[in-house]
Write a structure and sequence with these properties.
CATH architecture of the largest domain in chain A: Orthogonal Bundle
CATH topology of the largest domain in chain A: Rna Polymerase Sigma Factor, Chain: A
Helix content of chain A: 55-70%
Low-confidence stretches of chain B: 67-79, 123-135
Order of helices and strands of chain A: HHHHHHHHHH
Number of helices of chain A: 10
Shape of chain A: globular
Mean pLDDT of chain B: 79
Distance between the termini of chain A: 37 Å
CATH class of the largest domain in chain A: Mainly Alpha
Strand content of chain B: under 5%
Shape of chain B: rod-shaped
Low-confidence stretches of chain A: 107-113
Structural class of chain B: mainly alpha
Number of domains of chain A: 2
Helix content of chain B: 55-70%
Strand order of the largest sheet of chain B: 1-2
Radius of gyration of chain B: 45 Å
Largest sheet of chain A: none
Structural class of chain A: mainly alpha
Number of helices of chain B: 7
Strand content of chain A: under 5%
Oligomer: heterodimer
Distance between the termini of chain B: 63 Å
């Protein structure tokens, strides 16, 4: 049964088809949000909010065939709302110390603005954290496209539909996003060679 | 064909039409700048893909809205604290009274101007109350709920299988990439060793040649 069939049954008053949709999409959506925000707990909370929004608004979806685009749009809006809230009410962090005092907090020495440790025996979890941090360094509009392309395997046309942006703009953002990431990887000394045998 | 960044990205993500794909491949053969650009972009994407997908562990289940509403809604006149206390007190007293009456099996009859009150303790021969589950409507609801649960479990199982297959595919692809990377690195090592060995052998030959030249007397060389 495809998404459109499940939506039709949900709109007839059954809840189970929506739970099936949740099951079908939860991992995919979680991985999208995780790469976007870079924090697992926050990503889980956001996913719950996304599905609740979807549950409440599914009746407004005119074309059930566009469900995936619609769901990604909800996900993106939810993530952006969260970021705006955080910008309005920022949590005090050790990173904030550097902005105030012009130098990193002693607890962050060697980790904040310095390249992270990248010896030849980089652990897989460390590598994920590094990639997550690297993704947070590029502009948001580029990060969205990189995540959608690299981790969600969406086609350029699909990304353009979600973002309601021309395809060439999507490609341009992806290009500069990848360039920015390459620069960060070079600065941090991360290359395929020094992680090759680890993976 | 000119250098085109957008087409390079289409090529990298395999979104070019076969004809355009071939045209770009022939362009790449003659354009070192595009080759370098492609290699750099490809290297960045390969690094990004070393972060595999993770399990969400969301455990999110939605229930019918009517049930939720029934659970939480209260009449508006019960919203003030004093009224609420009073109402809950009255309801509690009534409940206790009803419970006591039920326990003593209270019976009240009025016949021809005569009022009779009778009390009996638990264990009387009164017929048992009809079980709600025997009502046809409730049973239908129960069956529908069971059916929905069954469908959800089936859907979960199907999704689980699909996810497992996808994970297996991803793992195999990663393993294959890793194997290929390792093979190339090994080939590079072997190539370097062969070059070193070649150089070493050649230098030994040259040294032997020099020694031989020194050993052969100059006049003999001249006669030859």
């Amino acid at each position: 049964m495809n998404d459109a069939d499940l939506i039709a049954r949900f709109l007839q008053g059954q809840v189970t088809p929506f739970n099936t949709l949740v099951w079908r999409w939860q991992d995919r959506l979680f991985n999208f949000v995780l790469r976007y925000v870079g924090n697992r707990e926050e990503a889980r909370d956001l996913c719950q909010q996304i599905f609740i929004r979807a549950y409440r608004n599914l009746g407004n979806l005119r074309d059930p065939e566009r469900f995936s685009t619609w769901l990604y749009q909800i996900a993106l809006n939810t993530c952006r709302d969260q970021q705006r809230r955080q910008q309005r009410h920022p949590n005090l962090s050790l990173d904030h110390f550097e902005e105030e005092h012009g130098q990193p907090h002693p607890a962050l020495k060697g980790t904040a603005s310095q390249p992270p440790p990248t010896d030849a025996r980089t652990h897989e979890q460390d590598l994920r954290d590094l990639l997550s941090r690297a993704l947070q360094t590029i502009p948001e509009e580029q990060r969205v496209v990189v995540v959608m392309k690299e981790y969600q395997n969406l086609k350029f046309t699909e990304i353009a539909a979600v973002l309601e942006t021309p395809i060439n703009t999507v490609k341009s953002r992806l290009y500069y996003g990848l360039k920015g990431l390459r620069k960060i990887f070079d600065q941090w000394g991360i290359s395929e060679e020094n992680i090759g045998y680890e993976l | 064909m000119n250098c085109n960044r957008e087409q390079l990205l289409d090529y990298l993500y395999k979104e070019l039409e076969p004809k355009a794909h071939r045209a770009l491949e022939s362009h790449l053969e003659s354009c070192p700048d595009c080759r370098r650009e492609l290699e750099e972009l490809g290297g960045t994407t390969r690094l990004l893909r070393t972060w595999p997908d993770e399990e969400s562990h969301l455990n999110l289940v939605f229930v019918a809205e009517e049930a939720e509403k029934g659970k939480h809604s209260l009449p508006t006149w019960l919203t003030t604290a004093a009224w609420r206390r009073w109402a809950f007190g009255l309801a509690g007293s009534l409940a206790v009274a009803l419970l006591l009456l039920a326990l003593v099996d209270f019976e009240f009859t009025y016949d021809n101007g005569r009022l009779d009150l009778a009390f009996n303790f638990v264990g009387s021969s009164a017929p048992p109350a009809v079980d709600d589950l025997d009502q046809p409507l409730t049973r239908r609801d129960l069956l529908a709920a069971q059916q929905q649960s069954l469908e959800l479990i089936q859907a979960m199982l199907q999704e689980g299988e699909i996810r497992q297959q996808r994970n297996l595919g991803l793992t195999l692809a990663q393993f294959s990439q890793q194997l290929e990377r390792q093979r190339q690195q090994d080939l590079q090592v072997v190539g370097r060793r062969l070059e070193e060995s070649d150089w070493y052998t050649e230098s030994r030959f040259r040294r032997n040649e020099d020694v031989l030249q020194q050993l052969i007397p100059a006049n003999y060389r001249g006669q030859r």
